[in-house]
Design goal:
By secondary structure, the chain is an all-alpha fold. The chain is 77% helix and 0% strand. It is built from three helices and no strands. Helix 1 runs antiparallel to helix 3. It is elongated. The relative contact order is 0.18. The mean pLDDT is 80.
């Protein structure tokens, strides 16, 4: 059986792994140089993904 931490990290990485890669490829392809708000939104989405993955892990796999 997997540990709580292992499940949590797996769910979190699934939701946050490709943000910077996707942003860099997208902005390079359309030659955009002003990415301030897009980066802030992407980081907010990463933090929300981490928080929701903790909630999902607790909801689906409660301790005890």
């Amino acid at each position: 059986m997997d540990s709580f931490l292992g499940r949590f990290v797996s769910i979190m990485m699934r939701s946050t792994e490709t943000v910077f890669y996707t942003m860099s490829i997208y902005f390079i392809s359309i030659k955009t140089t002003k990415t301030r708000f897009a980066l802030a939104g992407a980081l907010l989405a990463n933090f929300m993904g981490a928080a929701l993955s903790l909630w999902i892990t607790n909801y689906l796999y409660p301790l005890g």
